[in-house]
Amino acid sequence: MRTKSKFTVGSVAFRVFLYFYAVVNLYPIVWMLFYSFKDNAEMFVTNPFGFPKVFHWENYVKAWKTFNIPVYFMNSVKVTVITILITVTITTMFAYAVARMRFRGQETLRLVTLIGMFLPLQCIMIPLAVLVRDLHISNTLWAVIIPYVAFNIPFPVMVIYGYLRSLPYELEESACIDGATIWQCFIRVIVPNIKSAIATVVIFLFMGVWNEYNLALILLTRNNLKTLPLGIVFFQGEHTNDFGAMGATMVIASIPTIIIYIIFSNQVEKAMTVSGAVKG
Amino acid sequence: MKKYLGNKLMIGIFIMPVCAFIAVLILYPLFILVKNSFTTWDGLNPAVFTGIANYKRIFKDPLFYKSLKNGVIYAIIQTCYQIPLATLLAFAVKSVTNGEKKFFRIAYYIPAVLSVTVVCQLWVRIYDADYGLINKLFEILGLSYQQNWLGGKDTAIRAVAMVGTWQFTGYQFILLFSAANSVPSDYFEAALLDGCTKFKAHLRITLPLMQEAYRYCLIIAFTGGLNAFATMNIMTGGGPGTSTYTLTYLMYRSAFSVNNYGYGCTASVMLVLQSFIFSLIVNRVIAREQIIY
Q1: Residue in A96, A182, A250 closest to B4 by CB
Q2: What was the pLDDT predicted at A2?
């Protein structure tokens, strides 16, 4: 192999380009963080671009106290946690049955669950809204949790199925000889073996559910049931003049996903590429 | 063993919950959707069967064509911006040090982990005609490009499309970056030994081997644009006038604003067809054979 000196004109140009695009990507977010600490005068006139001169922490206090943020935040937490718990439980069970147990039509059944991946899901928004109303769950958070679970079935099934297929059948054989029931074998032997797949799935679900907007918009009409993404839009109409506090609410809503992403960035990227590889 | 894994009762217990969710919340609504696209329905009273009246109407509706056109504009902007840019970034990041790699991957992907509402609200501020970042920047640079980005009939759809594009370029970058890294370097190095330049070797060898990743990127970029909804709903509400309507937005308005659920269902059916036809074409043209290295 030829060895080239590390700093050619080309590689410098590429670096400049990479850092430039990083700025294009990050500056709007940093700007949001800056203006969440500013008052209107500083934001619009004296210092629109830079680091805040005076930190107006009261924007955050105001967002938390008067903008109903704790309620929306808790709604988001509840919806996300419950959706993840139910989805992971039922898809792991389902994937186990289609991957390792033996019955007729298991392959067809697995393919049917993948429909959700190829369908633009907003197309069933209308019938879903009517269905949720007819099931009489409109006044609870189940109005979004149940559809979220249904829409999030394909990806976990796909990932967990793949992992389960790669495990040796000796696992079940030895469990069978030891006299364990299939349920005990599933809980004590199989689940511990697919922890990393489950972790990928949990993070993928968290990112999707925490930020979901379209379905929440049509299914959650009562103000005290709104999740954070909806709540933020609601402020836009209510408090159009208080941009600092608006910025604070946006920062509060973004912190959980950003932190989780930075900690688990490899997992998140893995989840994305796996879903890409199969969906195409 | 056969009896162990063929336990009918346990199979039933394991598969029932997922089957129930899929049947009730995906297949049944899909059936209702297709059925009610042939009816006049206000969502409350029983639907009245009206045959293909809705379909006749939608093909005569100028708003339908406008929505289609906007979807295509959105899709083209998204595709033409994201895919070349993500390709360039992916190959550039391949050649930097590991520490920088980590930084760039996180920096490029972060907008994609934000909620669409946060991103849209943020860009409403950035686009603001009087105090927005973009117009201020032009002012400082002494250029007279200042305009009301979201308020102009022609600029609005492009401005809205750029927000979705900005948010998800990092996603495409991650897909292409990992695809580029999974191509074995043997072929590439062999080409270099034969005296090929780096650029040409990537163009002729690495890129063609990534065609499956490209197919997927193309499908999500384009159908994502055709089906766009949240960005216009938050930023412009379809306006000014009807200049940022897309098909999903048309469906949403027909059902939830004017209570014309039947017509909304018809729009939804067109939405499914549109994505389906596009995916079919792409699958026919790109990466028809699977590559196994």
Answers
A1: A182
A2: 45
